[in-house]
Write a structure and sequence with these properties.
Blueprint lengths: L5 E2 L29 E2 L2 E2 L18 H4 L31 E2 H25 L4 H5 L14 H30 L3 H38 L6 H10 L18 H22 L11 E4 L2 E6 L3 E7 L8 E8 L10 H47 L7 E6 L2 E6 L11 E8 L15 E8 L2 E3 L13 H25 L2 H4 L5 E4 L9 E5 L5 E6 L6 E4 L3 H13 L3 H26 L3 E4 L5 H8 L6 E7 L6 E7 L5 E10 L2 E9 L11 H26 L4 E4 L14 E5 H5 L15 E14 L2 H14 L1 H8 L3 E11 L10 E4 L2 E4 L4 E9 L5 H23 L2 E8 L3 E10 L14 E7 L4 E5 L9 H8 L8 H7 L1 H13 L1 H6 L2 E9 L2 E9 L6 E13 L2 E8 L11 H10 L7 E2 L3 E5 L4 H17 L25 H9 L16
Parallel strand pairs: 1-4
Antiparallel strand pairs: 2-3, 5-6, 6-7, 7-8, 9-10, 10-11, 11-12, 12-13, 14-15, 15-16, 16-17, 18-19, 19-20, 20-21, 21-22, 23-24, 24-25, 25-26, 26-29, 27-28, 28-29, 30-31, 31-32, 32-33, 34-35, 35-36, 36-37, 37-39, 38-39
Helix pairs in contact: 2-4, 9-12, 11-12, 16-17, 21-24, 23-24
Length: 1115
């Protein structure tokens, strides 16, 4: 190695760089940037790769660097260094930095020293050194054992070799001091060697030309022979062969000869050599003096004979290939070669030898043709995908070369010649060598599949396609079989189809259903072996990437990959389609292990958690996508001490198969899930309250087709029973049958007014509940149907009572439309509605059965408007006085109480609180119509009396006061001016409703506080005249009077008022009138007896608390 070949630094001023400094900047020989090199080899040439001040050629950069400002005036020669002309090329190729050389040498020495030490440590140790005492080792003589000597020899050789290497390095380092001169010497030496080579080549060329002209030179003419021949016509010294040319054959003779040869060939082949004809030469034809042996798919050979002796051999005439592609005509050299070889085989082994030679020759030619086509494919569209190797009369083609990593599995075919012989089996007559194909798939030979190939029509591409078809068929069939074994495809919940082609691998596809009308098609490229999926999308691209680049065994991973593509598609479709209808994917609230344990699912696939924005927080919809089948679950989550858990789960009985994920599906899903949530919530509430129920299937035409929600049947008495009632035989509601049907009818958006009122109520309570209401704008609609026992009781009710309550007179059925939030129970609302209907039924029943003129003008579930007069009801239901004024009252049916309001100017306003007590007592509506109508004339008369006394009260002449104690008991008090100043006279009258002989009558009598109850004064005399007045319509009872409950009751009160008012207008009082003080307040009911108890006792005929006659209204 020349020292100047190594580029070195000028001197050893700096320390030599270590192996860690290989990437730092070094200016070597003034012209190299070490950072642009890798392992000492430059990335580019120095004559154009580097520009700027760091580029230095043929010299030291400090001495020979050129100023860029002067480069414009200098010619090309100024860029040269070492004063060399342009013809001399500057050599930089192969230069290695000295620092790199020394660092590599140091690293090599260190590694070899380490290896040498390890090798010496493994060498055997002499026995004395092992068994002796190490403390006396210094006193022992030198160890001359063979082991020790071998160690010393190895160390000596190692030191000598390293010394030699480092000596060379020292020489090179010394030569580096003259690097400029050495570089110039290298350039000159290279130039001289080039000139010397040109000289030697020119000399050789001239010598070769002179040598070749020797054969082109013509010999000198033989003038002597030519002169003699031209003169005498002969040349005696020339040899004479005395050949006698045969006469030319005529066409007839030629035909005769041909016929004779044909005859001889026929006789020889049919008689003499019949047994010696090879099995594959049985197909032959004799014509034109030759026999043509045909071997289908291989060759045709023409043979003939040259002698009549049948012991003589056949002779070769012509040869033709009988397969394609093959040359139509033989070349001269090939013909000469075949003629010699075939004639030689015919001479030695006859026809058998001829067939054997030509058969083996054709097989070799076929293998060659396969190889030629294979190499041609590698330069065409199969480039970089095939690896062809020519073997001994065989070839190997590895396909899908770039499919796996170099250490991955490989697949190839070997096409070669098989001898056709079997071990320990005699050879059959038809056995012969043939082309055979061996297929190795993923490093394993496939022996159970026979791959047919046509060697009569040679096509390497068709052969590859046949093999690749089987390979693709194996991959797709294996994936198909694994998919087919899964429950999702066994139950035909999804489509799966496999199409396999035996000839065209691109036609082999595996189709799997992704969605309702979406399939994925899996193909394998015949040339590259890469998987492709259609249609193209981001999910199929990920599947292709996983199978092509991330999978080590696509056959095993194909199932998981296709399932992953399907899951990705379903998740994307659910997210994309469901978002517009209120469904959104969310994070799973519980872990997968909890789901698997609760659902007891053997195979858990990908879980999708969905939630609607109008659902309660604990409800989720979970979709389990797995090969066992897609399952939709309605999950209710509960917080437990150990974390979130599943409190209830219900599998949605959706139709098998992939659903059509459209807006209609999600709308129906919303309805279905809301119905199940409502069903679960209601049944749970019934169970908690101990209410018995049953459910059954019933057609529901308000729901989408194929959606079945069970109808729940309840007992009315279980819903309406009071806590204090425990008697099972007691009927709570006598107006209806004891069964209620609850049927889900759908969902609806909560009305804006309802949401606004809910928000207002919630704002008054808490902000947290307001947010919950805002997130639940959907309500469930449930119909409850109650059949009444006697529809005639509700003859006053027909059609829609309210927006959500209707009654059908013909069927006798109440239909309730109940509304509640998703996840909320409707039982409380149902109870309130039933109680309202019960109140309404009692009210209507009381009005219908009343004998007074009371009518329902407007009926709703919470409000009944009635009109009434003081007349009794006619037999046909029409009032006797149809033109009389009808007063109106409104009954408001509330959940906790009942309120009765009167219109403005109604005479019953003074006793509205008494009516209120009556309606909220146990009697409720039973006596309401009676009291409204029977007291109307009394109150009307009292109003007219009150109006008449206004002027007297203004003048101070007297006062009239009414004290209603009960609905059937009134006290009226007259205050008259007495004879003495500041003295007053009082008159107290009691108006009480009494029943006499089954007829209610008003009894009016005087009853003063204290004693006597009925003093004998002028007031009594005035009343006496009224009691006994002529033409009266009332009946006198000596000291009182009674009158019916019709409008005539007012006449009695007016007559009494006229008599008393006339006394008030007199100037002087009667002398018999006694002075009385202010009256004491009227006695009130005992504290332990309320208004409801009073009316109950009154209805049952018990005595009043304050004494008096018994009033029985229901006798």
């Amino acid at each position: 190695m020349m020292p100047g070949v190594v580029m070195m630094e000028n001197g050893f001023r700096d320390a030599l760089p270590t192996n860690h400094d290989r990437d730092q900047l070094h200016l070597v020989n003034g012209g190299s940037n070490y950072s642009d090199r890798h392992n000492g080899i430059g990335n580019g040439s120095l004559d154009g790769g580097n520009t700027g001040a760091n580029t230095m050629v043929n010299g030291n950069g400090a001495r020979d660097s050129i100023d860029p400002a002067q480069s414009q005036d200098s010619g090309p020669s100024t860029l040269r260094m070492n004063d060399l002309p342009d013809e001399i090329q500057h050599i930089t190729q192969g230069f290695v930095p000295l620092g790199l050389l020394l660092s590599r040498l140091a690293q090599k020495s260190h590694n070899q020293l380490t290896e040498e030490i390890m090798a010496l440590s493994k060498m055997a140790i002499p026995a004395p050194a092992v068994n002796g005492n190490s403390a006396h080792a210094g006193a022992m003589p030198d160890d001359n054992s063979p082991e020790n000597l071998n160690k010393k020899i190895r160390l000596l050789n190692f030191a000598r070799e390293r010394h030699s290497e480092w000596t060379k390095a020292l020489v090179i380092a010394q030569w580096s001091r003259k690097a400029d001169q050495v570089s110039k010497l290298i350039d000159l030496m290279n130039h001289l060697n080039g000139q010397r080579s040109l000289y030697d080549n020119s000399l050789d060329y001239l010598i070769n030309v002179k040598r070749d002209l020797t054969f082109a030179r013509l010999p000198n003419p033989d003038l002597r022979t030519a002169l003699h021949v031209l003169s005498t016509g002969s040349a005696p010294w020339m040899p004479e062969l005395n050949y006698i040319e045969p006469p030319p054959l005529t066409p007839k003779e030629q035909q005769k000869w041909i016929d004779n040869i044909n005859t001889l060939l026929s006789i020889r082949l049919n008689l003499e050599d019949h047994e010696n004809i090879p099995y594959h030469f049985q197909d032959y034809n004799i014509d034109s003096g030759r026999v043509i042996f045909k071997v289908p798919g291989e060759f045709e050979v023409d043979l003939t004979i040259a002698d009549e002796d049948f012991e003589k051999q056949f002779w070769f005439i012509d040869f033709r290939f009988d397969f394609t592609p093959a040359p139509a005509d033989l070349t001269d050299s090939l013909r000469i070669f075949l003629e010699g070889k075939v004639n030689e085989a015919l001479e030695k082994d006859g026809l058998h030898g001829c067939y054997k030679f030509l058969h083996e020759f054709v097989l070799t030619h076929k293998v060659t043709e396969y190889v030629r086509q294979a190499f041609q494919l590698t330069r065409g569209r199969w480039v970089d995908t095939l690896k062809v190797e020519r073997l001994n009369r065989a070839m190997s083609i590895q396909y899908w070369v770039g499919r796996f990593a170099p250490e991955g599995p490989k697949s190839w075919v070997i096409l070669g010649v098989h001898s056709g012989k079997k071990a320990n089996v005699p050879a059959a007559p038809d056995s012969t060598s043939h082309l055979t194909l061996r297929w190795f798939r993923d490093n394993k030979e496939v022996k159970d599949i026979e791959i047919p190939f046509d060697d009569a029509t040679i096509s390497t591409e068709d052969l590859l396609k046949s093999v690749i078809c089987r390979h693709i068929e194996y991959i797709l069939t294996t994936i198909h079989a694994r998919l087919q074994s899964k429950g999702r495809f066994q139950r035909r919940e999804a489509g799966l189809a496999l199409y396999v082609s035996k000839n065209d691998p691109i036609q082999s596809v595996l189709k799997m259903q992704l969605g309702h009308d979406r399939n994925v098609t899996l193909r394998i490229s015949p040339t590259t072996g890469m998987f492709s999926m259609e249609p193209q999308s981001i999910m199929t691209l990920k599947g292709e990437t996983r199978l092509n680049w991330q999978s080590k065994d696509p056959v095993q991973d194909g199932l998981a990959c296709l399932e992953g593509v399907r899951c990705h598609y379903v998740v994307d479709e659910i997210n994309r389609r469901g978002k517009g209808t209120g469904w959104s994917a969310c994070k799973g609230p519980v872990k997968g292990d909890v789901v698997k344990e609760v659902l007891n699912a053997r195979e858990m696939g990908q879980l999708i958690w969905l939630k609607r924005r109008d659902w309660a927080e604990q409800w989720y919809l979970m979709v389990n996508l797995s090969l066992s089948g897609d399952r939709w679950w309605l999950i209710e989550i509960s917080q437990q001490p150990t974390g979130a858990g599943i409190s209830s789960h219900t599998q949605l009985p959706l139709s098998p198969g992939a659903p059509k994920l459209e807006d209609s599906f999600f709308s129906h899903l919303t309805i279905f899930t809301a119905s199940i949530i409502s069903h679960i919530t209601n049944l749970r509430t019934l169970h908690q309250q101990g209410v018995k129920y049953t459910h059954y299937e019933l057609a529901n035409y308000s729901l989408p087709r194929n959606m079945r929600i069970p109808v729940v049947c309840l007992r009315l008495q279980d819903i309406l029973r009071q806590p204090q009632r425990h008697v099972s035989n007691q009927r709570v509601a006598s107006w209806a049958y004891d069964y209620i049907e609850i049927m889900f009818k759908g969902i609806d958006k909560r009305p804006a007014m309802s949401r606004t009122s809910d928000r207002n109520v919630t704002a008054a309570n808490s902000t947290g509940q307001r947010a919950e209401l805002d997130e639940h704008p959907l309500d469930i609609l449930i119909d409850a149907r109650i059949k009444v026992i006697d529809p005639s009781r509700f003859s006053l009710v027909e059609g829609s009572i309210e927006r959500d309550v209707a009654f059908h007179q013909g069927l006798g059925v109440f239909a309730l439309r109940l509304r509640a939030g998703v996840g909320s129970t409707i039982l409380d609302n149902l109870v309130h509605r039933l109680q309202a209907i019960e109140k309404l039924a009692n009210c209507i029943d009381a009005i219908r059965q009343s004998s007074r003129d009371v009518k329902c003008e407007e009926i709703t579930l919470n409000r009944v408007v009635i009109s009434y007069t003081d007349q009794p009801k006619h037999q046909d239901g029409v009032s006797a006085l149809s033109n009389s004024h009808r007063w109106k009252a409104i009954i408001v049916l509330r959940a906790n109480d009942i309120q009765l309001t009167f219109e403005q100017g109604n005479t019953h306003l003074r006793v509205s609180d008494l009516f209120q007590r009556l309606l909220n007592s146990d009697l409720r509506f039973e006596k309401l119509p009676f009291f409204l109508s029977s007291t109307l004339s009394i109150h009307r008369a009292l109003d007219s009396v009150k109006f008449a006394w206004k002027e007297l009260e203004t003048n101070g002449q007297g006062r009239f006061e009414v004290f209603p104690e009960y609905l059937d008991l009134f006290s009226i008090r007259y205050t008259l001016r007495g004879a003495i100043k500041n003295a007053h006279r009082l008159l107290t009258l009691r108006i009480r409703l009494e029943v006499r002989k089954g007829t209610p009558e008003w009894h009016i009598f005087r009853e003063e506080p204290g004693k006597p109850k009925q003093p004998d004064d002028d007031l009594s005399q005035a009343l006496k005249k009224v009691w006994d007045a002529e033409g009266r319509v009332w009946r006198s009872l000596v000291h009182s009077a009674v009158i019916g409950t019709d409008q005539r009751a007012g006449e009695l009160i007016e007559a009494i008022d006229e008599a008393i008012r006339s006394l008030a207008l007199q100037s002087l009082p009667s002398p018999t009138v006694s002075r009385q003080g202010q009256p004491r307040s009227l006695p009130a009911p005992p504290r332990n007896m309320g208004a409801a108890a009073y009316h109950t006792s009154m209805a049952q005929g018990r005595a009043r608390p304050q004494g008096g006659a018994v009033v029985v209204l229901d006798d």
